[in-house]
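Collaborator request log, item 7. Partner lab (contact: R.S.) asked for a structural prediction of Cysteine desufuration protein SufE to inform their binding assays.
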Amino acid sequence: MPAALAEVVSDFADVQGQDKLKLLLEFADDLPDLPADLEEAAMEPVPECQSPLFLHVDASDTEHVRLFFSAPAEAPTTRGFASILAAGLDGQPKDDILAVPDDFYSELGLAALISPLRLRGMSAMLARIKRRLRATP
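Returned to partner:
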């Protein structure tokens, strides 16, 4: 797991109960804005998410993969998940992202607080990122 993602997982391990939800909402507030030259219409939708979520994977430099996410403010859980992936994986090498365990999100300790359907949304985001990276030479 890349160090940045391991740090996020550690941050979640350091808090308990409802504080985990507060931390997730803090991440939601920190989701980076899209760059001016990237429109949501050009991004890939992630229909497995409960709320509208779009992602874009720029692997033109496989040593520094760029990840971009768009989710509405009224979808804080989805935004939080996207922000976790952005904080932990944006700028990382392709091979390091591909090596992230598919179920890493279980280490966040949110299963008791978030519905399994919502957690599957985070899994779907990571799966789509990996699929895009595997299609990149």
